[in-house]
Amino acid sequence: MTPRLPFLLDQLRRDFLVHAYWEMDDPAAVLRAEGRDVRAVVTNGVVGCPREVVEALPNLGVICVGGVGLDAVDVTHAHQLGVQVTTTPGVLTADVADQAMALLLAASRQVPLGDRYIRQGGWGRGEDLPLTRRVSGKRAGIVGLGEIGKAIARRLSAFDMSVAYTGRREQPGQPYRFVADVVELAREVDVLVVSSSGGEGTRHLINAGVLEALGPQGILINIARGSVVDQEALIASLRSGSLGAAGLDVFADEPQVPAELKALDNVVLSPHAATRTTESRQDISRIVLANLKAFFAGEPLLTPVTDRPLSG
């Protein structure tokens, strides 16, 4: 369990005996002393539950993930040990899609630069600002047309943007054009939005070749996982101007963000905040609690993970 869900933590402490892992001076010693009594783990998609923790809890029955990311949970290993895993699907979709649009608008219209311009007195001194670029009517590509990708596509379409996508396979019935190769997709669009799943299967999927194809007027938006983008290649592309701009909610080694990224004006940075809304945290808490109560009552779980989901 991590302290990122205060709504949930308060309720858990009312209903259960909670061992706050993040507060432990010597977690291994606590697990040795208390591990046999632990029946459930509550965590989030970023922190997850390491294999060594799972193996230190011989009577563990369920891992409840507040979110949909499973990069930090070895679902196959958990299932082999008879441990069920749940997530909170659906509740984060709108917030993450909204964040993608916020980053796109901020990066394209250079909102942070304009904010600093006013705060630092540049407007009052008559200093000039560079022209920004329109979002409406541009061509957009989506990497990973899962539920979040589809929600982003609908928002992009509302801005009169043409939308294409890439993924493991073409999805029948979608109104968006499928492009099998991510480099080709990047070459054809003005904006590339990354909404794929993380993990080794997509590690550095967005590499130097993709960024070069996106080009000096292109914008990259990443609300997926930092591992999907080759961060060093991204920094080099932004610094050289071979990529126009980026909006990033995720990074390779969170919460560490390279100084090179912080120094650039053509990138908008967000602290993995796509789901940091009151509404999403309340919804997450509700589903996690419902799964926990079902587990301890011996009832079917509400949102079990049957296999590792991948974004389209």
Describe the fold and architecture.
It is a single chain. With 312 residues, the chain is of the alpha/beta class. The protein folds into two domains: 6-91 and 277-296, 3-Layer(aba) Sandwich (Rossmann fold), CATH 3.40.50; 93-269, Rossmann fold (3-Layer(aba) Sandwich). 36% of the residues lie in helices and 13% in strands. The protein is built from twelve helices and ten strands. The chain has helices at residues 6-15, 27-34, 51-55, 75-80, 93-108, 111-119, 147-158, 182-188, 208-214, 231-240, 259-262, 278-296; strands spanning 40-44, 62-66, 84-86, 139-143, 162-166, 177-178, 191-194, 219-222, 245-248, 267-269. The strands form two sheets. The protein has a seven-stranded parallel β-sheet with strand order 6-5-4-7-8-9-10, with helices on both faces. A three-stranded parallel β-sheet has the order 1-2-3. α1 packs parallel to α12 (278-296), α5 (93-108) crosses α7 (147-158) and α8 runs parallel beside α9. The longest helix has 19 residues, at 278-296.
Keywords:
312 residues; alpha/beta; Rossmann fold; 7-stranded parallel β-sheet; 3-stranded parallel β-sheet; 12 helices; 36% helix; 13% strand; Dihydrofolate reductase
